[in-house]
Amino acid sequence: MSQPLPQTVKGDSASERLQALGLKLPVLAGTTYLVPHRTVGSTVHLSGQLPFKDGELLGRGVVGRDVELETARSLARHAALNCLAAAVQAVGDLDRVRIVQMLVFVASTPDFGEQSQVANAASELLIEVLGENGRHARTAIGVAGLPLNTPVEIQVICTAV
Question: Three-state DSSP class for 108?
Answer without folding.
Answer: strand
